[in-house]
Amino acid sequence: MNRLETDNLDLLYFDPPETYLTPYVARSYLNSLEFQEKIFGWKPWEKMTILLKDLSDFGNAGARSSPNNAIIVDIAPLNQSFETFSAGERVFTLMNHEPVHVATMDAWNSDDAFWRDVFHGKPFPNNKHPETILYNYLTAPRTNVPRWLLEGSAVFFETWMGGGLGRAQGGYDEMVFRAMVRDDAHFSIRWASNRKVCSSTFKAA
Fold first, then answer.
1. In terms of DSSP bridges, do strands 9-13 and 2-5 run parallel, antiparallel, or are they unpaired?
2. What whole-number distance in Å separates Cα of residue 90 and Cα of residue 74?
3. Residues 133, 105: Cα–Cα separation, whole Å
4. Which of the chain's ends, N or C, has fewer CB atoms near its CB within 10 Å?
5. HSE (CB half, 13 Å, CA atoms) of 168?
6. Cβ neighbourhood burial of 99 (10 Å; 0-12, 13-18, 19+)
7. How far is 100 from 80, CA to CA, in rounded Å?
8. Residue 125, Cβ neighbours under 10 Å: how many?
9. CB count, 10 Å around CB of 63?
10. Per-residue pLDDT tens for 127-157?
């Protein structure tokens, strides 16, 4: 493995097969970080670690803020079989989505900062030591919000940063929303926040 390091990023990758991607991944992340800092007023607690890997035949990514700020990216093409949109470009789309998770979970105030200093970081919950759940909550309470809220906010920002096209607003969504308005149908708040998770809650008025 090799690394590309900046003031705000520690990018880990397999060299040489992934080396060609590293300048683009780094630039995409730093552009996204600038936007998150502006919109959220977020100052990252620590440098982001991004791991690139190509160990599967589909693209995906995951993010965390405990015990450190990190994103893991599968660099294969995204699976479009059950999606209602096509990503403009997978790295661009993932870097507009995953850092939002980190920003919303890592965001901190003076109380959080106090406990992070006490515990020398953000303890990760460990089922063998249940008390770590409390330690994690004290240092990073926003990691414990409902999944639909985390994914809904990331999908919203991914769409906003993608020029208004994405899972929060595409041709399918436009058709459904216009039909619901026409038919005077009821909008469930959870459904509107994350259609993919909560579509079953929709009811006609």
1. antiparallel
2. 10
3. 15
4. C
5. 19
6. buried
7. 22
8. 17
9. 24
10. 999 999 999 999 999 998 898 889 988 988 9
How many Å apart are CA 94 and CA 52, to the nearest integer?
12
For the chain, give the DSSP string: -EEEE-SSEEEEE-TTTTGGGHHHHHHHHHHHHHHHHHHH----SS-EEEEEE--SSSBEEEEE-SSS-EEEEE-SPBP-TT-SS--S-HHHHHHHHHHHHHHHHH---HHHHHHHHHTTS-PPPBTTBTHHHHHHHHH-GGGGS-HHHHHHHHHHHHHHHTTS-BTTBSHHHHHHHHHHHHTT----HHHHH-HHHHGGG----
Average pLDDT across the chain, whole number = 86
- Please identify which residue in the block is written with the tokens 């160990």: 55
| pLDDT digit string, tens, across residues 151-199 | 988 988 988 888 877 777 766 767 787 888 899 888 765 444 444 433 4
Counted residue by residue, the chain has a size of 205
Query: What residues pair up with 126 in beta bridges, in sequence order?
Result: 129
Q: What gap in Å lies between CA 59 and CA 191, rounded to an integer?
A: 26
**Is the bond leading into 16 cis (omega within 30 degrees of zero)?**
yes
The torsion defined by the Cα of 55, 58, 61 and 67, in degrees rounded to 10, comes to -30
Residue 33, token pair as written in the block? 């970080």
